[in-house]
From TrEMBL:
One family name in Pfam for this protein: CDP-OH_P_transf
GO BP annotation list: phosphatidylethanolamine biosynthetic process
One Gene Ontology cellular component annotation held by this UniProt entry: endoplasmic reticulum membrane
Recorded family membership: Belongs to the CDP-alcohol phosphatidyltransferase class-I family.
Name of the protein in its database record: Ethanolaminephosphotransferase 1-like
GO molecular function, one term: ethanolaminephosphotransferase activity
Amino acid sequence: MASIYLSEKHLRGFDKYKYNAVDTSPLSIYIMHPFWNAVVKIFPEWFAPNLMTFLGFLIISLSFIMLSITDWSYYAASRQHPQYPPIPNLVFLLAGAGLLVAHTLDGIDGKQARRTKSSTPLGELFDHGSDSVISCLLPLCVFSVFGRGEEDYGANVWMLYALVCVICTTFYISHWEKYLTGIMFLPWAYDFSQLALVVVYIVTGIFGYDIWKGTYAYGFQFRYFFILTTLGGSLILSLPNTIWNIYVSYKDGTGKNRSPLRAVEPGVPVMVLLVVATLWAAFSPTDILQLEPRIFCLTVGITLSNIACRLIISQMTETRAKGFNWLLVPLMIATAISLWTDLGPTELYFLYALAAVTLLAHFHYTISVVIQLADHFNVYIFSLEKRSPKGARPPSGNGNK
């Protein structure tokens, strides 16, 4: 059995858990949900909801790998760096189609669970845990559309870092909100942003990079419009609603009524992560963010994903969200050594080692938790087949028919 990360208190909390979400987005209500209600009927009832979730995650991961292979350093879109060949248009078309399919699978997995009467807390945790990683991968993928090089309508890698931090933090805040209110208020910007990215990929795949390069009316440039829209959608649309919902829950006594200390505690590990990572990026002797933006931002995003998964578990099980995450320790050590010693080129290897440790630790944690929950609820992860009751003796023989 996998290493046990969940205590008996966690498991008892999962046993009592009931899903509670509110979706008021007009786009979701009038367009996406009717579309998803139709699409889910295409799938047979034996098709496991978790398999839908995993396929969507796998598609986004493959898009990330595909774009990483063709544009590792984010220079492919720059005409000022001809030594980096442009990304083939087909790659963008595949990324756009893949995102549309993945978003659809994310929209119908819960409907399939209710349709097949197979809803469990495992399914919700599996869904949100996958989304926490996807929220990191999406900005790392779409940044290839305009790439680096401000002299050719590209963007600075600090903009990429800001996108990853803001998008991942916005995802985290939505679950922090549920930790305090008991209700998941689905953000309005989510479906719109996914569909907008699909359009950007498809347009780039048809017309190439050049369609986004240029200055239009009133000094409009795509790079700034895209980044400001993304940041604005997260900060302007989501954050005020979150603050209001939390305020109302405390005012009316409808939320969890946690003490001020317990209420702010989930924000501590995120603040530590962002402060430490930003200090490393800003004062790195080798300018580590410029040198390896993809790995640096991926490491920050996956660390935030791990913090988010632990908060989601605390929120679902009514347990205390801890104010520290051990994955911050290797980050702080790497940052301290890099800033206070003259590592030279070795600093890059510290980043690679940190990325490997972070990825391995996070996926060991998530896989172990999923296996432990599947065992607890006595269900298969990717199948709706019934497992034998716990304690039942297996059939004799070798199982061949």
